[in-house]
Amino acid sequence: MATRWFGAPVQRNEDPRLLRGQGLYVDDIDLPGMLHAAVLRSPYAHAKIVRIDTQAASNLPGVHLVLTATDLGEVLEPSPLLIPHPALTHPRTQLPLALHEVRYVGEAVAFVVADSRYLAEDALELIDVAYEPLPVVHSLATASAPDAPLVHEDVQGNVAAHLLQSVGNPDEVLANAPHVIRETLQMERGAAMPMECRGIVARWDHYEQMLTCWISTQAPIPIRNGLAAIFHLPEHKVRVIAPDVGGGFGAKIMLFYPEEILTPFATMRLGRPVKWIEDRRENFISTNQERGQLHEVEYAFDDQGVLLAVRDVFLHDTGAYTPYGIIVPIITSCSLPGPYRLKHYASDCQALYTNKVPVSPYRGAGRPHAVFVMERIMDRIALELQMDRLEVRARNFIRPDEFPWDVGLVYQDGGPTRYDSGNYQAALDKLKLALDYDTFATRQAEARVQGRYLGLGIGYYVEGTSIGPYEGAHVRVEPDGRVFVATGVTSQGQSHQTVFAQIVADQLGIEPQAVLVATGDTQAFNWGVGTFASRAATVAGSAVHLAAVKVRKKIQALAAELFEASAEDIELAEGKVFVKGAPQRALTLGQLAIKANPLRYTYGESARTLAAMNLAAARPGPALPPERDAPGLEADGFYSPPHGSFASGVHGAIIEVDPATGMVSFIKYVAVHDCGHLINPLVVEGQVHGGVAQGIGGAFFERLVYDDTAQLLSSTFMDYLIPTAAEIPDITVEHIETPSPLNPLGMKGVGEAGVIPVAALFASALDDALSPWHIRIREMPLHPCRLHELLQEARCHKAVLPLATEKPGAPTENCH
Amino acid sequence: MVTIKQTSMPALHDMCSLSLTVNGQHYERRVPARLLLSDFLRHELHLTGTHVGCEHGVCGCCTILLNGEAVRSCLMLAVQADGMDLTTIEGFASSQEPLHPIQQAFQEKHALQCGFCTPGIIVSVHALLREHPMPTEEEIRHGLSGNLCRCTGYQNIVAAVKCAAVYLADQETTHSRNENNK
Ligand code: FES
Ligand code: FES
């Protein structure tokens, strides 16, 4: 193979279209006769619905349909529970429209379809709903209180699930270890906030009896299957397309959001296309969120800094419903050991209902919490033993010769948490160099003399990626020589039209620009799952590779026949196919595709050239001989990993804190990352940059603030602060490549990686910068005011207790 | 028990006439007074490259040029643009034309992922580079701070702006050289 595209920094196929403003996002679709929908949402976090009067709304000119729960007939079913689990003893999912009770602010109550969105919103204002407010569970503390109000009347203690996992004998080790520490660590809610909100356009075609939906989703195939079941249609009569999707980050993997059922319902009822586009306010109160957890962790270590055992008891805020099961807390539980040889570990998690937006994975999906806990532990061990923080980690690493490493826990996919490969020390060494770690203490001391507070933080993580069950792909050579690829996964910015093209280009001897990749259209490819869990490039990429290898073989077999040569001697390069050593007599891929279809009629320039080429004559017998079972140069490939592959990495940063204001700035940020073989370093680095930016947002700027009636107070971009170019530093990305043995190209996932260690790193850097005050960060996210508060508290406790005996949540009464 | 009752009918929405130029083309329309400029561009003129990410003036996805100034089209009514000259992302390069130097720099530096924020950012960058033809890092970051991007972490966008500045300066030099040689 002359050029190798895999691994090259290829510019993206999707860019020219997107740069010209010619992308096609859901709201760009405008169908003839299309109507527009709006949703009436609950203003209460918990209330009984006593009565709904829609008369005035229905009478408004231009309104075509007003739906409440009782209008939905047999479609009024709770949304399916996507991922059941034995520990999830009390799952509850949402109705498309609330019937008797609302359980969070933003829950859908009525659906209006009108000539325009403006009119539909006018109509919402004419709907009268009588609510009877009920007691509200606004926090994990309230949810777990002995006399807590109940989010679901029949779920005692608000406990949706109780998940216990353990390895070794943590109780015994904790009872006998030389050092034991217990701490409370907390993370609050944040949200994915893709720049494009959710949306759907649905069309019912009466003549074809076919439902077509364009949805801003990460999972069109599962939605297609679900809609077919809900509306009693054969699967091939439902087409779901995820066109260009303006970011997802996990929030769009959720199904079904109510509008994904209501909009198709309305189009089938009215016989006209219907569009519903979420606005940002709705996105804040009706698109799933994540991150709320409260950990009580107890851990033991010896005098050498070796971690002996961990017992982590945590509460997970699952919101009002559990559509996505308990995937997030399972991931937290399994990710906590990270890169360390933890032999004795118990994890005890209760997922609790609260009167807030339901929780499902958001980039990182339970991992940032786990890494926060474990890396806080590592820093604390170093502090207690007065050891170097990196040295403590090094002493606990799983060594390269210990892979595959079994953590001993059941992962989110039901398989083992088995690390396939890794080299944790190598990444740490790279980080040390990039940060100039050895001179940092001097730099820090010099800065302190000038009254500047520098801190260095690190965060190490291992990330389960590339889980099954499977993905598939179709690869076909077109008569014009271009290659068409289709797969079931979607793209929300991950550059699949480029990276899959690179994989195919290598097999077929063409340029990536000659490969057209279709993603997220159930009619282009029928099988698959979706883009989540850092799995699309690896799992679907492997399927694309397998399909391309099959097509290459077909090309070689056919060319061998035509050139009267042997298949092993056929080469593919620069879009041409020829016998080794004789490139002057070559067929283009397109000509070969024409030849692969034994028709009596052929068209165009290529066909004329072919006729003049003096190729081997057709053999007698069937036009498609048994060894060529089908016409065309095409093949399907499927890839199903035995279990997830585990990427890893370590981030380090140097920050400066202004203790007077609590403001923090980054001086340097380094991410060392191992995702096996890289398909495209530009794309991988872009993913890491974006992840880190979200991590920084989640650690210091973004916080979903609920009051005690569970009203969201930070529900605009004026209050929920997504970081801008002015806050995010440049990030140096370094790669380690330990290939995964689990897939043909040795890849691991990267989509979520960037975000995972940032909260831990930020805490670590703050502790370091503020060490004169003995600050110990135990919560995320922080913001300047909160940091300032912590500093004030610390100043008031000048006679600081040695940290090991300090109780979590030390009293602050005497502080003003 | 609390009853939320809202019975007042919204006022009838007068239609107003509107005449304006978008990307060099003149349009005359009658539109409801309350129609947002962003909705007018996207849904009346089908210029869907202008995106809407928040409708409250923070994300910058809807940025367009209004008489040469970068403005947020979600914060204006269409009728307020009466008599004005607008440029949207579609005015930077049609499918037949090569990419504008800013767009080209964005592709080379991998400054977009999902692409949703991109049109607004390119329009903002255009305005930024007109004011600061060779901006410092700080000027770039400050100039971009009215546009949110949730995908890229901004680093490659900053690199693309630097690169675009050079392309535009080269173009300027070539242009003036050609003028001088006339
Ligand atoms: S849509 Fe106009 S600023 Fe966000
Ligand atoms: S590229 Fe997705 S928001 Fe900027």
TrEMBL record, chain A:
<feature type="domain" description="Aldehyde oxidase/xanthine dehydrogenase a/b hammerhead">
    <location>
        <begin position="20"/>
        <end position="135"/>
    </location>
</feature>
<dbReference type="InterPro" id="IPR037165">
    <property type="entry name" value="AldOxase/xan_DH_Mopterin-bd_sf"/>
</dbReference>
<protein>
    <submittedName>
        <fullName>Dehydrogenase</fullName>
    </submittedName>
</protein>
<dbReference type="Pfam" id="PF01315">
    <property type="entry name" value="Ald_Xan_dh_C"/>
</dbReference>
<dbReference type="InterPro" id="IPR008274">
    <property type="entry name" value="AldOxase/xan_DH_MoCoBD1"/>
</dbReference>
<keyword id="KW-0500">Molybdenum</keyword>
<dbReference type="Pfam" id="PF20256">
    <property type="entry name" value="MoCoBD_2"/>
</dbReference>
<dbReference type="InterPro" id="IPR016208">
    <property type="entry name" value="Ald_Oxase/xanthine_DH-like"/>
</dbReference>
<dbReference type="Pfam" id="PF02738">
    <property type="entry name" value="MoCoBD_1"/>
</dbReference>
<dbReference type="GO" id="GO:0016491">
    <property type="term" value="F:oxidoreductase activity"/>
</dbReference>
<dbReference type="InterPro" id="IPR000674">
    <property type="entry name" value="Ald_Oxase/Xan_DH_a/b"/>
</dbReference>
<dbReference type="InterPro" id="IPR046867">
    <property type="entry name" value="AldOxase/xan_DH_MoCoBD2"/>
</dbReference>
<dbReference type="GO" id="GO:0005506">
    <property type="term" value="F:iron ion binding"/>
</dbReference>
<dbReference type="InterPro" id="IPR036856">
    <property type="entry name" value="Ald_Oxase/Xan_DH_a/b_sf"/>
</dbReference>
<keyword id="KW-0560">Oxidoreductase</keyword>
TrEMBL record, chain B:
<dbReference type="Pfam" id="PF00111">
    <property type="entry name" value="Fer2"/>
</dbReference>
<dbReference type="Pfam" id="PF01799">
    <property type="entry name" value="Fer2_2"/>
</dbReference>
<dbReference type="GO" id="GO:0016491">
    <property type="term" value="F:oxidoreductase activity"/>
</dbReference>
<dbReference type="InterPro" id="IPR051452">
    <property type="entry name" value="Diverse_Oxidoreductases"/>
</dbReference>
<comment type="pathway">
    <text>Alkaloid degradation; nicotine degradation.</text>
</comment>
<keyword id="KW-0001">2Fe-2S</keyword>
<keyword id="KW-0560">Oxidoreductase</keyword>
<keyword id="KW-0479">Metal-binding</keyword>
<dbReference type="GO" id="GO:0051537">
    <property type="term" value="F:2 iron, 2 sulfur cluster binding"/>
</dbReference>
<dbReference type="GO" id="GO:0046872">
    <property type="term" value="F:metal ion binding"/>
</dbReference>
<dbReference type="InterPro" id="IPR036010">
    <property type="entry name" value="2Fe-2S_ferredoxin-like_sf"/>
</dbReference>
<dbReference type="InterPro" id="IPR036884">
    <property type="entry name" value="2Fe-2S-bd_dom_sf"/>
</dbReference>
<dbReference type="InterPro" id="IPR002888">
    <property type="entry name" value="2Fe-2S-bd"/>
</dbReference>
<keyword id="KW-0408">Iron</keyword>
<protein>
    <submittedName>
        <fullName>(2Fe-2S)-binding protein</fullName>
    </submittedName>
</protein>
<keyword id="KW-0411">Iron-sulfur</keyword>
<feature type="domain" description="2Fe-2S ferredoxin-type">
    <location>
        <begin position="16"/>
        <end position="92"/>
    </location>
</feature>
<dbReference type="InterPro" id="IPR001041">
    <property type="entry name" value="2Fe-2S_ferredoxin-type"/>
</dbReference>
<dbReference type="InterPro" id="IPR012675">
    <property type="entry name" value="Beta-grasp_dom_sf"/>
</dbReference>
